[in-house]
Fold each of these.
Amino acid sequence: MADIAQKWSFAREASPGPNLLARLFDWKPFLVFLCLLPAIGLLVVFLTYPLGLGLWLAFTDTKIGRGGAFIGLENFASLYHDPIFWTAVGNTIFYTATATIGKFALGLWLALLLNHHIPFKSLIRAIVLVPWIVPTVLSAVAFWWIYDPQFSIISYILKDVLHVRSTNIDFLGTPWAARLSLIAANIWRGIPFVAISLLAGLQTISPSLYEAAMLDGATPWQRFRHITAPMLMPVLSVVLTFSVLFTFTDFQLVYAITRGGPINSTHLMATLAFQRGIPGGQLGEGAAIAVSMIPFLIAATLFSYFGLARRKWQQGEGND
Amino acid sequence: MTDAALATPEPAAPERLGVISWESGPRKLVTVYLPLACFVIVLLFPFYWMAITTFKPNNELYNYKDFNPLFVHSPTLANVKKLFFDTDYPQWLWTTMLIAIAATALSIFASVLAAYAIQRLRFRGANWVGLAIYLAYLVPPSILFIPLAAMVVKLGLFDSPFALILTYPTFLVPFCTWLLIGYFKSIPYELEECALIDGASRLQILRKITLPLAVPGLISAGIFAFTLSWNEFIYALAFIQSSEKKTLPVAVLTQLVQGDDYQWGALMAGALFGSIPVALFYSFFVDYYVSSLTGAVKE
């Protein structure tokens, strides 16, 4: 036995080179550093640094291809007196609020429908997700064609099939019609994500709770109000935060369908930042518009944090 | 059977307001199937419209009086032919695919290592690193593209696919890392302990034990990353200028629309064929997709 042990230790010391390397790779701090390096490196260089750079750019008069000088709050001051900026802020808030309410009302309804025992459930679930999978810009192009002033299929159905209107609807020609059309497209795209996420939340609710409530004579509304709603709240708050965050910073739909028109009346803050910053070349001013979105985003994130904290409390679990 | 006895005092209550009920029959038809059918029709209609516009000849496209617009009367491939032979469409498809694959590979590589370190190496502050990565997901591209554009120009990457391959991981890595942390959690730690006792090194364990078991998780993270990079728009719009290097969503919107003369047929064909690869890719893995999506939300 001792002989074997000696051979083993001999073998171990015979090749110090690879052994040292192997031991280095088993040394935990080094391994942790090595494993985190690619992810953290990418995120620091392309996310954290640009975030800081964006804050800095907002206080300079940088243009594309030319460094700028620090000009203090001048960008924000000029935005403060810019009616287009305030239209964009108002649009963004209105767009986010209306689209979110629409998405969650319809998404919750769809989730409740899908929670029934129905044939071909998995197929229907797969179909329902399609608007969320397909590139937003490409479905936006389809909406652009659906909203065509002359050949809109919606106008055709309302005018020539149902005879409820006598003229075509000018979907994108006037500010309010354009805003509402964009909101409809955003709701259309957002329903699947909300519905599928809420469906997952619904499926975690134990049927025995409903049985108990039915035995106590609870009405369907009472069952929804006192079982479904509170049990769904944790999932709902997370999905809501994500939805608000991504609707607030939406860019693609508006850029693809109206490009901010007619006459800058449908700009969101993101599209205005793009228009001023990239084609307009005023990086500093664009950055200032983008930075103005940050307070709203922080509010949404805090909302998410407290939603999560509440979930732990509701489930009565520890910290993991 | 006491259930029935207890339920008898108010037998009509669930009937009367049947919003959620397990009853079948005509009531279910009105409360469940009819609304569900409306949802499916509304959610799919834009794609149907996209598809039939693609195959309509021009005289049908602009004449609703003589041809019912909801159907194709004499299907034609003219729009498809125009798209594939008169524009750079194949080139755009190819570029988009290459960029999506490269960005996905880079992100999965970084995410696997990070998720393994956070979930399995159990170092101090692992939870904080996890939280920081999660917060990174909450930073939307809309506020990053301007400083990134300045960086990309400075690094000499403007108008190069590398600008996109390097910036897409900013939203892919946080997402994939969180997905994989959840997946690694579901793999029993005992397997790794056994290997540790047998003298395997940490990297051997990752390569020979954890990764093979995590293949379903890797696939779903890969699908997510691929579709997200295929769909990405704002970076591709801001960082790429020359027509032949554009990604598909950007190219369809900026290259197929020239002036006020919209070629709706070709435009719809472009949108349709740009959607099909993602839809196909997704349809093969729909179960992974739904379970990881809902898993990520529940996490």
Amino acid sequence: MAYLQDIRRKISEKEGLFSFSELHLINGAHCVIAGHKGLYSVGADLIVIRRRGGRIAVRGEGLRVLTADQSEIELSGKIFAVEYLSE
Amino acid sequence: MKRRGDVTFFLRTKRVPYLLNRAIKAGLSVSAVVLSSDGVALSVSRRQSAALRQILLEEEIDYSERGQNPFRALLARPVLLASLALTMAAIFLFGSFVYGVEITGNHYVNTSSIRAVLTENKVDGFVYKGAIDLEKIRGEIVALDGISFASVSVKGNRLYVDVKEEILPLSPEEENFAPVLAERAGVVTKIVAESGTPLVTVGDVVKEGDVLIAPVYTFTEGEAPAPAKGEVYALTVYTKEIVLPLFTLQNERTGAKTSFREIELFGRKISKESPSPYPSYDVTEKVILDCGFVRITEKTYFEKCEVTVCHDFDLEAPALIEKARAELLAEVPFHAYATGSVVAEQKKLDNMLYIVLYYTVAQRIDSLFLPDSGRAGR
């Protein structure tokens, strides 16, 4: 395990392969965020999701979390903006 | 997105992100998160609901849950509901019919005659249980010849008929007033007379056809007829004679042969008849082609002529004796006890060899004994 973790860390540092977060915005009504680090805040007009090295803020109306698991979070609602915030 | 079978939890908490993160980190898949003024509603699969409950207990969060009503879940699946209803109807329908008959207990009364009674009462194939009059069927089966008791019952979808047959009357033994005769010649070794008067004693020499046990009882006043019964054992000798002449005439092939082919078309011979060109011959037939309507056979004639063969007694005698010995042993009945081995005596005359084989055995020689069909291979 330690060996694998070392490898992951090395690759992450050099290539940044495992540090990315991916965001899909579909018609401004659906948003799928992969590679998240959890939720920061949940509200009807703002949902902030933590990612490695910062946060993603989704602004809109009637926002809600459709599904959330370890790999991705799916949001729905009227999405106005997506912001990448640095720590 | 809420899925069928998910459990919905209503949580009264302000720490929604923390709780969601805790659930996600615990490996749960949370869906349909809806915020309200006093908390949040979320759904997890039924399998993961226990883990979420555990988290809520640890965090001391007040919650209520609502699982899917099983009846509603069933109503939501019309195909399953229809197939269940169909299955129930089929079970009810098939449960009301009899479609199998089992007949037991009969040994000499034909099953077909019992089955005929059932057929007359329309118990054949698929029959509605209510239409079967068990008492009437039972009465008719008992009325059959040879049956003293019958039980007719329906268990599940089968009709069981168990019968008890009448005990067969014993036929009186026929009395036989014929004497017990000797089937073979020999020296009597043992007599067991059950009924009648024995006319021979141990050591007597009897010939074939001699009376061994007479069918009478002898009293001082006279005689009374009685069935002759008993067993008589004797030493008896089986013999076999072989004569081997010095010269014999034998038909042997000269080596000349002639072949003809015969053709049959639809079973009708179309070739000419092919007679043998030799006065003395052997003939063999071999099918060359047989394809239904055409049949070609090859007929081969081998010429034969008479040859005088001179036999060597010393060379041929052992093989002849061995063959005769096997034939002699095959004649001896299976129940006979051997008292020695086969003895071969041979005598050379002018132009022939005369061999006699003797085999002495102890066996039953009375006519009452039914010899077994098997032969001893000794």
